[in-house]
């Protein structure tokens, strides 16, 4: 895209003028207007994404504000004018069925809720600014969180303990401030839910048909009855391998294979991923190589003034292209992190190419993690064929990954139950409830006197702050990914073709996703996932 400059409001208004002045005289004109409006919104959205990306890449190195709130407000007004024109058209009833969701979203009038939305956004921003201001130190040296967290994988018990305590001693200082903000945002969200006719924010979110409560409850039940016992067995073996009397909070990430390995440089790291993807599927490989790597649509190096975030966004001056933003140390564990974001990028790209309404092509949150977590599993399953990796590294990656699956599943369910509680009982003591849930989903970790520090899991979880009830999507997606992998093992070509076709549908709900993949998400079918994970952790 062009140089990193603030948006020009004159230029934006000129782009809107043809749509503001258009006369909708027939069905064809209405459809053309909707498509042009969708493309314009999608284009402006990409500009905002690019400016935000540049701010994150150069955090603290410039004082220029690239995203002006006044510009955002003007764009909102222009959008409302065009949407009003579309909704008042007598030709709406003649539109093809795939416009239904678009019209439904336009009919959602948020104007009466602006006060609540703005208040929530303000509190979220306060939380983000608080996190950005935290400085971590270890042995009198400043560390970014990612580098300090890396020490938790050390084979030295003392280093792990010192690093874990260093992180949490800093976090203890922010305990009161964070809890005040959290209570505040819960009240604001419950007020919003009440305005919408719901008892509380939990009821408001989970009443959405795209968040089927049955699917969520099946996941919670399966994890509690099948994965928690598996986690206990894994941790008992880990404790024995590490020759520890008890497993402490700082011991669970340690690499019991004693492998400390980093790729020499970015090029070696990318080549390993490319080799595996080429063996998995040529469409995914060419997307990775041609769109992400060759066009430079990624930034994965750790740099000074760069925000410590991992995410995929959509940019592009003329058409949408995904961009992966990460901070990687090129450890073997980072292979999984990068593959996860490649999964997001491929999903966005597939959906955009096939969906007429570009602005509404982005996958819904309820299915957004499925592509990533499925690609992780297929990548791991094919890693043994990678000629660029030694066998001991392949084994270490696989062992790390499947043990991490246990923690993803249990943590996601723990956070889901926690969120259900705090929005229904906002006056309760949150740490007390979290202590109960930690015990419920624990393996054999001896939390002892460190329960206050362990409670930081929810205080410093951005997901429960910024995207409530999203945490469980990781567990659901992980289980769906396992079911897809089991199909893939039986018929790789057919499963991948079906997978790519489903991703290209874009903005579909999770039930439609499962139907497209011919997957039954039931207790009976999940037994095969339990057996599969058990075999991988033996």
Automatic annotation (TrEMBL):
Its cofactor is Zn(2+). GO terms for biological process: proteolysis. InterPro entries: Pept_M3A_M3B_dom. Binds 1 zinc ion. The chain crosses the membrane at residues 464-486. The keyword Hydrolase applies. GO terms for molecular function: metal ion binding; metalloendopeptidase activity. Keywords: Hydrolase, Membrane, Metal-binding, Metalloprotease, Protease, Transmembrane, Transmembrane helix, Zinc. Residues 151-492 form the Peptidase M3A/M3B catalytic domain. Signal peptide: none annotated. The keyword Acetylation does not apply. Belongs to the peptidase M3 family. This is Peptidase M3A/M3B catalytic domain-containing protein. It comes from Lysinibacillus mangiferihumi. The lineage of its organism: Bacteria, Bacillati, Bacillota, Bacilli, Bacillales.
